[in-house]
Amino acid sequence: MRLLLGVDLGTQGTKAVLHAADGACLAESFVRSQPRYPAPGAVEEEPADQLASVIATIRDCLAKSGANPSAVAGLAIAGQMAGVIGIGADAIAVTPYDSWLDTRCSPYIERMRQHASAVLKKTGNAPSFNHGPKILWWKHERPEVYGRVAAFVQPAAYVAMRLCGLNADEAFIDPTYLHFSGFADNRAQRWDAKLCQLFDVGLTKLPRIVSSESAVGAVTPAMATACGLRSGTPVLAGCGDTAASFLACGATEPGVCVDVAGTASVFAATTRDFMPDVASGILGCGRSGIPGLWHPYAYVNGGGQNLEWFRAAILKHTRSFAELDAAAADDSGDADLPFFVPHLGGRVSPAWPHLRGAWVGLHWNVSEASLFRAMLEGVALEYAIYRDAARRLQEDFIVREIRITGGGEKSAAWNQLKADRLQARVVTIERGGGAPMGAALLAGLGTGVIPDLKAALPQWIAFGRSFAPNAATANLSQRRARRYADLLAALHQWTADAP
Question: Which residues make up the CATH 3.30.420.40 domain(s) of the chain?
Answer without folding.
Answer: 3-243, 250-432+469-499
